[in-house]
Amino acid sequence: MEEVISKNFIEQIIDEDLKEGKYEKIVTRFPPEPNGYLHIGHAKSILLNYGLAKEYGGDFHFRFDDTNPTKEKTEYVESIKEDVEWLGADYDQNIYFASSYFDRMYECAELLIKKGKAYVCDLTPEEIREYRGTLTEPGKNSPYRDRTPEENLVLFRAMKNGEFEDGSKVLRAKIDMTSGNMNMRDPILYRIARMEHHNTGGDWCIYPMYDFAHPLEDAFEGVTHSICTLEFEDHRPLYDWVVQECEFEHPPKQIEFAKLYLTNVVTGKRYIKKLVDEGIVDGWDDPRLVTLSALRRRGYTPESIRRFMELVGVAKSHSSVDYAMLEYCIRDDLKLKKPRVSAILDPVKLVITNYPEDQVEYMEVKNNQENEEMGVRKVPFCRELYIERDDFKIERPKKYFRLYPGNEVRLMNGYFVTCTDYVTDEDGNVTEVHCTYDPESRGGNSPDGRKVKGTIHWVAVPFAKKAEVRLYENIVDEEKGVYNEDGSINLNPDSLKILTDCYVEPCLLEAAPGDSFQFVRQGYFCLDTKDTTPEHMVFNRIVSMKSSYQPK
């Protein structure tokens, strides 16, 4: 029986367009504005557009929609480029800047003026808003609407030549001030703004508005399907008007899909920028954020994000996705790929009193117990070890099977040890745990067949390497929701916990920034790419060990 592959609604539209011969080759694009760093929501658009181009043997264009110099920076251009390439969206040589089309956009504006479809308007921004009307009341015509094409051309060229002050005049489309769609009530096409542009410098003092520039950019590049999020649905009639009135023979088609909404995360650029500007986070790549640079620094992989987007799918209506699904995807991606190593985050010393003082032996340890292909390594073992403080209790709690006075446990890949004593400081804090070991139990099994219920991990004191470990939680207080009534963010005071006295296996000295590992019993961790130095290792927790989330 032939497998039936279900296609999403965008694929169905493309299939129909190809069947009807509307397009010979599919061209999609990802057109970010370089006014901030990309976040997890943008990844959906990148992968969707790239995936469609790949699926249909077409082209994928990567374009910077840089028509607003007031907010755009070269820093953002470079970060976006890095993110797109990191995700694996291969744009080949198809990288573009909207600003490269400024001359052609200007020509299109003059064409509209000559056709009587655009006019120069002298109303102030406040007056334009007033004349626009409301959702229930129609707008009214500007007193400048009936200027002749000749007058408008003279004025528009004077705008271009810098003869008018910023904000004194705009170019508007002449459509319908009574339209039920507010976007069609003579929208602004160009405004005057004497701003230095990151790409064109001071060449221009007038800049096109997004709703005018965007359809033109798509049309110039031969984009067939302009796939964007649902908030642009009401803008589609204007999109179609622009490409029609500018007389493109094969205009692109705009299709809208639902945005990705993750529960309890901050994705709005202005909110993220506020967190950065106020020093609440240490930059756009702070691992508590969901910018792509932050996820990359935290240790997320492109594969995990691609898998996440597959699970989310493509829909026509908005819905929220549990952040736990993203965490599931990174766990699933790493579990068979990364070595499992010992790291002690809250150390207490364990002394094996009957173990020879100067003896060191090397235990053979599997790099990944679920993936034999990853081989083995040698781990040093000796008289003094670091163990987790929580792995020893003076008084045994119920259902506690780790170390306590008189109890025997297994040292992972080591020996059976029995607690005989402990030492405390003047405040009653345990400073040392004393044990004896069974020399016959090397490797973690006893020849007499006796069983122990507890197994704990360890790092040999003389060989242990000190490290800083950062435990990240959601930056949002999940119980209160993302935003307060005044629009501020409900910050989680415990979103970052820094542990400075941690000890890890000596093999981690060979790790490079960005390398990730499973810390046994702790979770998945990544060597920080920003703060790690040869003298100071910093590990970020990517995700904890377990989750209740399971994909359907």
What are the defining features of this structure?
ligase, Glu/Gln-tRNA-synth_Ib_codon-bd, 552 residues, alpha/beta, elongated, Ribosomal Protein L25, Chain P, single chain, 24% helix, 7-stranded mixed beta sheet, Rossmann fold, aminoacyl-trna synthetase
Structural features, described:
This protein is an alpha/beta fold and 552 residues long. It has 3 domains: 9-257, Rossmann fold (3-Layer(aba) Sandwich); 269-338 and 467-544, Ribosomal Protein L25, Chain P, CATH 2.40.240; 343-457, Ribosomal Protein L25, Chain P (Beta Barrel), CATH 2.40.240. Helix content is 24%, strand content 23%. The chain has 12 helices and 27 strands. The protein has helices at 9-19, 40-55, 74-87, 102-114, 125-132, 149-160, 210-220, 236-245, 269-277, 292-298, 302-312, 323-334; strands at 27-30, 59-64, 95-97, 118-121, 170-173, 188-192, 206-208, 225-229, 253-257, 261-262, 320-321, 340-341, 343-344, 347-352, 361-366, 376-381, 384-388, 408-411, 416-424, 430-437, 455-456, 459-460, 465-472, 496-504, 516-519, 523-527, 537-544. The strands form 7 sheets. A 7-stranded mixed beta sheet has the order 12-25-26-27-23-24-13. α7 packs across α8 and α11 (302-312) crosses α12. It is elongated, with a radius of gyration of 31 Å.
Report a brief summary of the structure:
By secondary structure, this protein is an alpha/beta fold. It is built from 12 helices and 27 strands.
Explain the layout of strands and helices:
Blueprint: H1 9-19, E1 27-30, H2 40-55, E2 59-64, H3 74-87, E3 95-97, H4 102-114, E4 118-121, H5 125-132, H6 149-160, E5 170-173, E6 188-192, E7 206-208, H7 210-220, E8 225-229, H8 236-245, E9 253-257, E10 261-262, H9 269-277, H10 292-298, H11 302-312, E11 320-321, H12 323-334, E12 340-341, E13 343-344, E14 347-352, E15 361-366, E16 376-381, E17 384-388, E18 408-411, E19 416-424, E20 430-437, E21 455-456, E22 459-460, E23 465-472, E24 496-504, E25 516-519, E26 523-527, E27 537-544
Parallel strand pairs: 1-2, 2-3, 8-9, 10-11, 12-25, 14-20, 18-21, 23-27
Antiparallel strand pairs: 4-5, 5-6, 6-7, 13-24, 14-17, 15-16, 17-22, 18-19, 19-20, 23-24, 25-26, 26-27
